[in-house]
Amino acid sequence: MRICRYNDDKLGLIKGDQLIDVTIALDDIPKTGWPRPHGDAMVANIEAISVGIEANRKMGYVQGVNNVVLKSPVANPTKIIGAPANYRDHVAEAQDDAEINFGREIKTINEYGLFLKANSALVGPGEGITLGHTDRRNDHEIELAVIIGKTAKNVAYDDALDVVAGYSIGLDNTVRGVEDRSLRKSLDSYAVLGPWITTADEIDDPDDLDFQITVNGEVRQESNTKYLIYDCRKLIEYASKFYTLYPGDILMTGTPKGVGPIEPGDHLVCQVDIIGKMEVEVR
Ligand code: MN
What we know:
This protein is an alpha+beta fold. It has helices at residues 41-44, 46-56, 88-96, 98-101, 109-112, 181-184, 232-242; strands spanning 2-6, 10-15, 18-21, 62-64, 70-71, 80-82, 115-117, 122-123, 138-140, 142-148, 164-172, 174-175, 191-199, 210-215, 218-224, 250-252, 260-261, 267-272, 276-281. Strands 1, 2, 3, 4, 5, 6, 7, 8, 10, 11, 13 and 16 form a 12-stranded mixed β-sheet that branches. Strands 15-14-18-19 form a 4-stranded antiparallel β-sheet, with no helix packed on it. The chain has a 3-stranded antiparallel β-sheet with strand order 12-9-17, with no helix packed on it. It binds manganese (II) ion. Residues 82, 141, 143, 172, 252, 254-255 line the site of manganese (II) ion (MN).
């Protein structure tokens, strides 16, 4: 099932290039007072909502998915987790390119661990990227995004995919420079998630997905998640040794070689096997 959030926070079911309004299924989310529980209420209740979607889909208004503004399918993550230097070919290009490394030694995820991006950076593809610090290099990084579905701590490697609600395409955009990643990767709109959540049952092996990003039609990054240094299970195992994971937490799994600058006016097309295609404008 492919579930999106669109326009004024409606819920959509994607069928091919059609979108069915299934917002009524959100009525299955239990009402909560203050403070609300950690995590995204839609993702936390995605199994009940899926039942509601099936029950109501024939009544929903249908339109072309290109007619709507796609928002981030997760509205309220507790965190966006990033995986630095998690493809060997990207490590190699970062070591070779002074505009990426800024004189620093480039290591791998084994030594860096993980980092966090600010939740306020999160947007959907229809909202686009608004560049900041345009006097500096701003890069795209396409990544497979894992959406956590359950509250989990100290998850074993073999059980790790059991806590996944689904997958999306992520853009971990970056201002290059000497500052900490958490600053340079957290500008408003520098975390793009979309175009929808493809539920976990549709993806048997997240560690064997082809993906690609083009900028104005030119292929910049093209790889497969089988080249991840820490694969999806290991990222979940590792992250959950440090953080409690909550429904809706977003794990951006890392980017391969080919990161490069984006400029206002650029048109990005991101594709990941099974999930689909996400188009993003840069301002
Ligand atoms: Mn990244």
